[in-house]
## 1
Amino acid sequence: MSYLITNSKITHFLTYRFLFCLFLISLTSCKTDKKLLTAQQITDNSIKMSGVDKIHNSTLSFNFRDKKYIAERNSGVFVLKRISAMKDLQIEDQLSNQGFQRLINSRPSIVADSMAVKYIESINSVHYFSVLPYGLNDNAVQKKLLKSTIIKGKKYYKVQITFNEDGGGVDFDDVFIYWIGAEDFKIDYLAYTFHVNGGGMRFREVRKEHLIEGTRLLDYNNFKPKDTNTKLSDLDKAFENNKLIKASEINLENIKITFN
């Protein structure tokens, strides 16, 4: 029995194939777009998800170890404070757009330049880590997307951060890597190099989330590698293989946020 193929059937068949191909291309495109997110897009999504973009106009206070920290931010104008008590003295160190100053019992105190640099590094470090990923879009920041990885069964984007010398602060040569969830854009791990006190590397694991006023602030377990020759980019593998030593815990207490 012969089968007659009409022009209408051919047209219908070709149309169906065309639409089906478009559907496949669309699916492939969606998957590709997801894989091809840039380091900038990943960072933007992480900042938005964490809510720390609101920190730009706020007053944040918390206790870390035996000191109180206060960050006053107002559209780029900032004062980062560290307050400690020693017998009958209250020492308040301030880092702002205008520079560094120390107040002892509310009176300005002269600080040698060599000591001021150490105080600046310490104050800036605590405030920097307290509000991550806030600050990762500063002008001095350079971002590079590394190969994605899996830690404890969860897929992560791996974003490397370096800094321009101009505007990068006294620690401009430090290198950071952030492991950002491919689905939720949460920072769960980070690693960094440092050069003060002999230098070294650290790997941090988020141990607790503080969800306060719509912002995600973090406590960490802080690790160092058993093998000092381990590469910074390989600290995630070292973590999974139990080749890191817990050095400390980073815990924020009495956190308060008010928005301007």
## 2
Amino acid sequence: MRTLDQYKEKQMQDPLFAKEYEAIQPEMDVIRAIVDARTSQNITQKELAERTGVNQADISKLENGTRNPSVNLLKRLAEGMGMALKIEFVPKQNI
């Protein structure tokens, strides 16, 4: 059985797959940042919802990629975790 990394490496050889993968990477980075921040503090979605007033179902939708958050929503989530939202633009070669 192959690992996920091996599978991804093979799929990335397909130019169409690679293009689509790169296109969704910003959204995936946002999702990963939200999940990592929340889980690193051992906060459940329900607890984060209570801290922010954001519905738990909406947090779930953000984390599974079926809802795109506004900057204001990201700020509320960050504040609910005692964090600040920082958005950074970087040159493509550094990605």
